[in-house]
Amino acid sequence: MKKEIKFKEPRIEELVAAHPDGVQRERLTRIMKELIAGFRFLRNYGLSATFFGSSRVGPRNPSYQEAYKLAYQLSKQGFAVITGGGPGIMEAANKGAYDAGGQSAGLNIMLPKGQRINKYVKESEAFDYFFIRKMMLAFASEVYIFFPGGFGTLDEFFEIITLVQTKKMKPIPILLVGKSYWQPLVHWIEEELCQKRRTIDKEDMKIYHLAASAKEAFLMIQKMVKR
Q: Which domains are seen in the chain, by residue range?
């Protein structure tokens, strides 16, 4: 039996009541401080690559190993590697950069029980607000690389391609690594959104690129990123 959700009043009224004016001003101040700190942190990096992907995979997982390889190769080519600072694909990418002797950065989120920062992050910035951290990750780099992941990874992917589609962000290399994971989604976008529903244009499917492996992704990035 489904649990019924009842609201006594509009949710916005509930939120306003929970945060009187003084608290709201304090919150706005914290938001501004985090935005400034985040952008100052990112100014320390030139050519950068941001990695996204599942936090649940371990070193034996093929995606972890491919993320490590790609981050290592990019780091050797002078890219700073930026991740969310956590485990899984983030750890793999930071480890690749760390082992290559390159810049390995993490944009971490502070949670009530804490979030572990992987040990391969050399420099980090922590955020209270998810939306600010997400903004930093979305504007941090010259290339965005997505490995298999869950809701968070998909959310970040769709937000970035939407920003490019709506010209809120300049066209930038966006790579999906791992065809067995990404191909069904790419096929659905092409068949359902483009051809059947016509909710996107054919040109929109050129915003992102599909790569089978770290090796293929690395070669694509070399061609797409101008120095």
A: 11-224 (3.40.50.450)
